[in-house]
Amino acid sequence: MAPKWVGSSGRHGIPRADQIHAILNATFEAELEGEAQEGRIMLFIGPAHEQTDRELEILVNDFPATGKEAVVFHAMTLGPKFKRFREDYQP
Amino acid sequence: MTDQRKTDYDALADRLTGDSPLEAAAVQLGSDAAASGRAFLLREYGGDAAIRQAIRRGRPRVGDSTPGESATVRGRIADVEYRAFMELVTELGKPQSELIREAVHLLLEHHNKLAS
């Protein structure tokens, strides 16, 4: 099995390999409260690849313990909204 | 029958990245976030080998079908050249990466560095 990438994840032209790298090397992860119709919505922030400091924001609809594949539905270079969101949760 | 619970991911992405305020139910930072991301991918792909394969598939090598990442070159350029380059990108409708590969190829040709 593998996650499903829907069309909205490609809007900003982020290669899928970079999206996977950002999740695998995430420096920030959050479950967004009350946003999922089913399962949970996860935010991952991490570097696009090893040769860059450029960070990506990735949004995933995850369905743990159901056997249902997760859905990656947003990927772009980290923007101001999630930068501020991360700052709000930094110690 | 229509699935009433089907999520509209375009609308969800717009909403979450728009002006609506967000709250976190749980947060992981630093190495804990990386461990959590890795656990998520392992759960989805079933193993490290499948994750590596997915990364290779998502970043195909340039110029041949050998698996693995292509070599990358990096360098800074002057603002004036950057502006001209971006104009060219728009005019030709080609991605930056394709034009950079073309430029490197022309440079190597000029210096007779390409194998015959």
Q: How many strands, what sense, and barrel or not for the largest sheet of chain B?
A: none
Identify the quaternary structure here.
heterodimer
Order of helices and strands of chain A: EHEEEEH
Ends of chain A: how far apart? 36 Å
Given the C-alpha coordinates, what overall shape of chain A results? globular
Written description of the protein model:
The complex is a heterodimer of chains A (91) and B (116). Chain A is α+β, with helices and mostly antiparallel strands and 91 residues long. Chain A has two helices and five strands. A five-stranded mixed sheet of chain A has the order 1-5-4-3-2. In chain A, strand 3 and strand 4 (55-62) form a beta hairpin. The longest helix of chain A has 10 residues, at 80-89. Chain B has 116 residues and is mainly alpha-helical. Chain B has helices at 9-17, 30-45, 48-58, 79-92, 96-110; one strand spanning 24-29. The longest helix of chain B is centred in the N-terminal third of the chain and has 16 residues, at 30-45. Chains A and B meet through helix 1, strand 2, strand 3, strand 4 and strand 5 of A and helix 1, strand 1, helix 2 and helix 3 of B. Strand 2 (28-32) of chain A pairs antiparallel with strand 1 of chain B, so a sheet runs across the interface.
Summary?
The complex is a heterodimer of chains A (91) and B (116). By secondary structure, chain A is an alpha+beta fold.
Question: What descriptive keywords fit this protein?
Answer:
heterodimer; A: 91 residues; alpha+beta; 2 helices; globular; B: 116 residues; mainly alpha; 5 helices; extended
